[in-house]
Amino acid sequence: MHLRSVRRTLITTTALGLALASAPAVAQPRTAVSTNAPVKVVLTVQGPDGRLFKGRIKTKGHEVTTATGGTHACDGTNGGAHPSAVPTPTAALDDAARKRHFTWDGTWYASFDDYTVDTIKNVDGGGVAYWNISVNGTSIPVGGCQFKLNAGDKVAFTWTAF
Ligand code: B12
């Protein structure tokens, strides 16, 4: 009786082990993956005396070069904001500048791993204002190379008095 019980337990355990080993892998839930595929956004540059630029720009995160700040990544990985490259506001400005042949300049701050955008089309803050960066009407809480853009976003660089 005792032997039969042990054998039954062994058979059940083996069968269970085999069933688990051959069970199909449990499907992983799909999570939103950040990609650096190009997105189209609407970029506006609003200066002190009116609009300096408005257009639809195809953009992705990329390395940028400024006269004052040098060459650095501007793809959302700045400051560890995103684990992989994504489109960003400052990269969108850079794409617009290259495609529509205007200039911008920015200072690199290693402490933030980001630029401040200081001059667009040779317009600076003149000590009384700065270039505010907003996306869909909201001022972004991080630098322009750290914020992730999505397709259709409205990106604005607005000359704003302190
Ligand atoms: C004052 C200030 C500003 C001033 C700086 C000029 C001035 N007249 O003083 C102005 C108004 C220009 C400014 C702008 C912005 N700022 Co600011 N600012 C500050 C603040 C309150 C104090 C900085 C300071 O004086 N430190 C003391 C001095 C001695 O140290 P410092 O290193 O020399 O300071 C310089 C830098 O901080 C730099 N700076 C200021 N803001 C930013 C933002 C970025 C992204 C970078 C790279 C550098 C930078 O300007 C300072 C003066 O030269 C900090 C908050 C804080 N408590 O640190 C936020 C702060 C640095 N700013 C911040 C942000 C997000 C911005 C903007 C991107 C906001 C926006 N949506 O437009 C813009 C920059 C836009 C652009 N053109 O690129 C964030 C940065 C967060 C991050 N991880 O990137 C902070 C930390 C506020 C926050 N959200 O918590 N800012």
Automatic annotation (TrEMBL):
<keyword id="KW-0732">Signal</keyword>
<dbReference type="Pfam" id="PF14478">
    <property type="entry name" value="DUF4430"/>
</dbReference>
<feature type="signal peptide">
    <location>
        <begin position="1"/>
        <end position="27"/>
    </location>
</feature>
<dbReference type="InterPro" id="IPR027954">
    <property type="entry name" value="Transcobalamin-like_C"/>
</dbReference>
<feature type="domain" description="Transcobalamin-like C-terminal">
    <location>
        <begin position="117"/>
        <end position="160"/>
    </location>
</feature>
<protein>
    <submittedName>
        <fullName>DUF4430 domain-containing protein</fullName>
    </submittedName>
</protein>
